[in-house]
Design brief:
With 341 residues, the protein is an alpha/beta fold. The protein has 14 helices and twelve strands. The protein has helices spanning 13-20, 24-31, 39-52, 58-65, 79-84, 86-100, 114-128, 141-149, 174-187, 203-218, 235-248, 260-272, 290-294, 306-321, and strands at residues 71-75, 106-110, 131-135, 154-157, 168-172, 193-197, 228-230, 254-257, 282-284, 301-303, 328-331, 334-336.
Length: 341
Amino acid sequence: MNTPASRPRPSTIHDVAREAGVSRGTVSRVLNGGHYVSPTAKAAVDRAIRKTGYVVNRHARSLITGKSDSVAFLLTEPQERFFEDPNFNVLLRACTQALAAQDIPLLLMIAGTEDERRRNLRFIEAGHVDGVLLVSSHSGEPVVARLHEAGVPVVACGKPLGQTTKVGYVAADDRDGARDMVRHLYMSGRRRIATVTGPLDTPGGVERLAGYREMLAECGLHADEALIATGDYSRVGGESAVAQLLERAPDIDAVFVASDLMALGALDALHQAGRHAPDDVAVGGFDDSPAALAARPPLTTIRQPWDRISGEMVRMLLARIAGEKPSTVILPTELVVRESA
């Protein structure tokens, strides 16, 4: 067992330079992006770093460069939502992996209350991170506006309502996904197709409801307001919304639910009412999250390409940090047919 006196000395930039046979300045340039360094010298430095086990002192480098070399994953939702909704965990893991490929740490920050938002924004504005990956079911408009005013690079997951010209974002095509689901339900013979929307102060809630209305009209069906209930992206919210639908319109034969987690609640409500999916009421979700496979029966749903969403978010944020202007990426969704519809 090593004592403090016998513990090996950490490798330094001088050790790397000696091993690679280059100057300390060349090593420094490689560590700071590899500008003005030949491919041969860079390869030698990379080999020397691996051999010596050199680890960059990020704090020391940040004092020189003015950058933290870290990024925040800012979730503006209550803490319990982070553990309940599997989409947030999937997105966090994928963003962490994408940043790890660039050797950039990711800080998870949850700001579901006003106090949490104030503390986290103060930390971000102080320069402790170089940029923010903003994730929220809701519009996050106050947070987006404040980060924009502070000059903090930010990329949002989903279309931030009211801020689309100021911030870059990556989103799945919510409207087209909803259209695909309603078309599938109609083609399977359903005619009383209800929906449980997401919160209507969220981009997903607004766009998925719009797609539902559009496809009903194209199929020659009336978008009866009695067939529309608003949910909150929680399992309990989905259960309550479908219970309301069954009370208002007991003849529904299908329901498009704007998230898989709410769709689990929809199945709960149907079971309590003595009905079954898909025989009595077909159920379609949205996300293709782990909840879709956990459902009984497994959910027909709309797949969001989470790996591509996270990869694009990271790519765009690093570009923003490098000085590029905000941009937008809309990615296609995919209908996944299983037993529920």
